[in-house]
Amino acid sequence: MSLLVALPKGRLLDEVQNVFKKIDIEFDTDSRKLIIDTSKEWMKVAILRTWDIPKFVNYGAVDIGVVGKDILFESKLENNFYELMDLKIGNCRMSLASLEKKISSNKKIKVASKYPEYTKQYFSSKSKDIDLLILKGAIEIAPILGISDCIVDLVQTGKTLKENGLNEIEKISEISSRLIVNKSSYKSKFEKINLIYEKLKEIK
Predict the structure, then answer these.
(1) Residues 46, 50, 52, 58: is their CA dihedral positive or negative?
(2) What's the pLDDT at 84?
(3) Gap between the Cα atoms of 40 and 62, Å rounded
(4) φ, ψ for residue 199 (rounded to 5)?
(5) Distance (Å, rounded) from C-alpha 66 to C-alpha 180?
(6) What whole-number distance in Å separates Cα of residue 143 and Cα of residue 139?
(7) The pTM is what?
(8) Is there a single domain that holds both residue 82 and residue 100?
(9) Residue 48 sits in which domain range?
(10) pLDDT digits (tens, 9 = 90+) for 96-127
(11) What is the CATH number of the domain that holds 171?
(12) Residue 40 backbone dihedrals phi, psi, to 5 degrees
């Protein structure tokens, strides 16, 4: 029974590929195939949109996935998967940023984000009432164009914020990529999944 692993498209793919290479699993990311063979005949990979990976794992379409903690937090699924480990790659942080040095404490504020669950939980913990604007593109432009007072977004170096005149007011949480596994697959394909898991633990 072969194992199907979902990996994220984009900048994180190179890091993920290097991690698997360290445990002697190699594959060609330049392939135009949707399901890609690996150096292990019992394992294949699918390169998917990051936001879709928890869904594919949750429904058992793939056995294992690599996905950021930010997306797991936002995924409103029945959690038909386990979060096996922190791969300690794709490291960044979820932060609150604004053109101002601080957020007004005496008025209802407008917050732009593509992470509504993080945003709602953060401001709820502060007992702060907000108007939430959910955007999908470049969040930094919202306060610049005056449609929000602040943003909640992923930050790596903070360079983009600075270049656009935004101040990082508070770090909400650290973010990294996690290894998740479908609950049924974990039982039916335990031997292969555990082999990968144990090898990954050795290098982390």
Answers:
(1) positive
(2) 96
(3) 17
(4) -70, -40
(5) 6
(6) 8
(7) 0.89
(8) no
(9) 3-90+176-203
(10) 999 999 888 888 999 999 999 999 999 999 99
(11) 3.40.190.10
(12) -105, 125
Instruction: Yes or no: say if 35 and 4 are a contact pair by the CB < 8 Å rule.
Output: yes
Q: Is 15's pLDDT higher than 90?
A: yes
Q: Structure tokens of 147?
A: 């449609």
Structure tokens at 117: 């669950």
For residues 145, 151, 157, 158, the Cα torsion angle rounded to the nearest 10 degrees is 50
Rg value, the chain, Cα: 19
Instruction: Say if residues 36 and 20 touch (Cβ distance below 8 Å).
Output: no
Q: Give yes or no for residue 78 having a pLDDT over 80.
A: no
Query: Are 120 and 54 in the same domain?
Result: no
Report pLDDT for 71.
94
Helix axes 190-203, 12-22, angle to 10 degrees: 100
| pLDDT value of residue 133 | 97
Whether residue 11 contacts residue 50, with contact meaning beta carbons closer than 8 Å, is answered with no
